[in-house]
Amino acid sequence: MTKIVVAVKYVPDATADRTFSADNTVDRVGVDGLLSELDEYAVEQALQIVEAGDGDVTVLTVGPEQAADAVRKALQMGADAGVHVQDDAIHGSDAFATSLVLAKAIEKLDYDLVVFGMASTDAGLGVVPTLVAERLGLPAVTFASEITVDGDTVKIRRDGDVATQEIEATGKLVLSVTDQTGEARYPSFKGIMAAKKKDVQEWTLEDLGIDAGSVGLDNAWTKVESFEPRPPRTAGEIVTDEGDGGAKLVEFLASKKFV
Amino acid sequence: MTEVLVLIDAVDGKVTKPSLELLTIARRIGEPSAVVFGAADNGVLAEYGAEKIYTFDDAAFGEYLVGPKAEALAQLVSEKSPAAVLAGASTEGKEISARVALKTQSGWIGDAVDVQVAGDTITTTQSVFAGNFTVQAQVSQGTPIITVKPNSTAPEAVTGAGTVEAVTAEISDAAKTAKITSSKEKAASGRPELTEAAIVVSGGRGTGGDFTAVEAFADSLGAAVGASRAAVDSGWYPHTFQVGQTGKTVSPQLYVANGISGAIQHRAGMQTSKTIVAVNKDDEAPIFELVDFGVVGDLKEVLPQATDEIKKRKG
Ligand SMILES: Cc1cc2nc3c(=O)[nH]c(=O)nc-3n(C[C@H](O)[C@H](O)[C@H](O)COP(=O)(O)OP(=O)(O)OC[C@H]3O[C@@H](n4cnc5c(N)ncnc54)[C@H](O)[C@@H]3O)c2cc1C
Ligand SMILES: Cc1cc2nc3c(=O)[nH]c(=O)nc-3n(C[C@H](O)[C@H](O)[C@H](O)COP(=O)(O)OP(=O)(O)OC[C@H]3O[C@@H](n4cnc5c(N)ncnc54)[C@H](O)[C@@H]3O)c2cc1C
């Protein structure tokens, strides 16, 4: 029986024109949002672990009202239940406050394993799993590319820059998984229908015993002072290869002193 | 002058270029002190401005994940009260420093591409949303703990005292849980490291699985080779060479994309390159929106010709 919590983030669609709000936080209202694609891999791994043995999957999100969509998508994929932590005071939280809310919510749930995506597709820091683990006093095996659960032992392969590591852990554990773990499934029609009946709990900071003074924009340990769009690139020169494309390419490189 | 702790990354004792960049940035803030787990070339650290070199040595650092290193560094931060802590924006650099930030109740900035100092104020620049925005941020609590991306500055040699001080830390049992049971080093490609290279030449699905032309062109320029996820997923090139959102972020002087369409997730990893060149047979490929120079053509013809031309010029 493996009880898994999967943390999923609701993010602005990366293919839309993402931007910031006047208070220097990510605009999560003016741009269509969705379940961060990289968290789909986390949901997929959790479902596979449960399918290979026995257990259940609860998805957890911290975010504004619309973030319920991210939970819904994960339920459609096959997760059993959802938790949505929503509280106006959370707006503008840094990675540390976010990890606090997630850790408190996870503590309230019964779990053996917590699975994250490798990074969000908006801020993309990739440290929330580590911070949650630090708060829960658990090891974090991040950027896992392969996971096998064998009784109460979890074996992980991690494909790093310098080396490929095999890691073994027993007991409660925090994992983050990469997109190398395997394609995430699409919700089936049956899954979409079943999701409508699944239980989604809505929690506030009060439910988690968190003081509003420890989260949100005003209490962030790190503050965004300003943002600016990158100046548009000036149109480059484009040539069509007529048997001399390679030579022209080198002429350009030489003009820029690369050769 | 106050001390700035710099977490050093060394492979088989050889200090990486991003670590030398960190030492250079640290001098803008105060006196750089290198923090080394295991061994690093102390001579090089001193040559790049390290006044002190703190060395930690404990088998636990190699046997477990980042837990023990984070505890050790946090103890050093509490003891020295540095003006800032700098680490590389690698997986390990981020994980260690983020845990240290939480342990010391300090603000943390991830993936900075620049660090500016005015008086006592440290401001960082981050490049976000696939390079479409730059963001300025500051730490408002505790010791500023900043992770910096490779290629953020040119390393400058300035001799520091390089006084070595062996330090120890108390490592809790809780930090020694997930055990590394095996670690296989990757074979070196003989080419420059992808994130550090001045020139990166990448291949995508358009290579059809044959990277020969891409590699030969890269070698003629002394470049690193990168790949799109389509190429990696097809098993044509190892994952370590993937450029993009879920691969490496590169910011070289020159990036050459060959047979790569330019999907947003690929752009996220290369859009901040100084000069961008593409070879693609489809004149409507989105990558052409980014380029300084583009060739509409078959890479199997364009690249070998370019390679020959470069060899000719080099004599
Ligand atoms: C441009 C930009 C720069 C930023 N820089 C910093 C910074 O330098 N320091 C800092 O402290 N904060 C920073 N933040 C704030 C930070 O991004 C947010 O606090 C965010 O909620 C957590 O970080 P992340 O999105 O990078 O998460 P990541 O660490 O990239 O996320 C990893 C995984 O954690 C889970 N997860 C993350 N957030 C949630 C959530 N809300 N609900 C459920 N699961 C979640 C998901 O599984 C996700 O895949 C920045 C934000 C932006 C927009
Ligand atoms: C969550 C997520 C994360 C992702 N992360 C990444 C990432 O990190 N990096 C990444 O690259 N992608 C990533 N992707 C995938 C990305 O969306 C694209 O699918 C991928 O970048 C496409 O690779 P490609 O350009 O090589 O292939 P394609 O899009 O198929 O393009 C091939 C191009 O080659 C051209 N071509 C074909 N034959 C030739 C020839 N003989 N000569 C010249 N040109 C030719 C074609 O005209 C075409 O433009 C991610 C996707 C998701 C959903």
From TrEMBL, chain A:
Query: Start and end of every Electron transfer flavoprotein alpha/beta-subunit N-terminal domain?
Result: 23-212
One Pfam family of this chain: ETF
Cofactors (names): FAD
CDD domains associated with the record = ETF_beta (cd01714)
By sequence similarity, the record places it as follows:
Belongs to the ETF beta-subunit/FixA family.
Record keyword Acyltransferase present: no
Q: Tell me the superkingdom of the source.
A: Bacteria
Q: Which PANTHER family match?
A: ELECTRON TRANSFER FLAVOPROTEIN BETA-SUBUNIT, ELECTRON TRANSFER FLAVOPROTEIN SUBUNIT BETA
Keywords assigned by UniProt, alphabetized: Electron transport, Transport
**Subunit architecture:** Heterodimer of an alpha and a beta subunit.
The molecule here is called Electron transfer flavoprotein subunit beta
TrEMBL record, chain B:
Please give the cofactor(s) recorded in the UniProt entry for this protein.
FAD
- Matching Gene3D superfamilies: HUPs, TPP-binding domain
Give a yes or no for keyword Flavoprotein in this entry: yes
Please provide the record's keywords in A-Z order: Electron transport, FAD, Flavoprotein, Transport
Pfam families (UniProt xref): ETF, ETF_alpha
Q: Which SUPFAM superfamilies does this UniProt record tie to the protein?
A: Adenine nucleotide alpha hydrolases-like (SSF52402), DHS-like NAD/FAD-binding domain (SSF52467)
* Matches recorded under CDD domains: ETF_alpha
Q: Which parts of the sequence belong to the Electron transfer flavoprotein alpha/beta-subunit N-terminal domain?
A: 4-185
Against SMART domains, the record matches this protein to:
ETF
Please give the PROSITE patterns that the UniProt record associates with this protein. ETF_ALPHA (PS00696)
Instruction: Report the family membership.
Output: Belongs to the ETF alpha-subunit/FixB family.
In UniProt terms, what function does this protein have? The electron transfer flavoprotein serves as a specific electron acceptor for other dehydrogenases. It transfers the electrons to the main respiratory chain via ETF-ubiquinone oxidoreductase (ETF dehydrogenase).
Task: Summarize subunit and interaction data from the UniProt record for this chain.
Answer: Heterodimer of an alpha and a beta subunit.
Protein name as annotated: Electron transfer flavoprotein subunit alpha/FixB family protein
**What organism does this protein naturally occur in?**
Aeromicrobium wangtongii
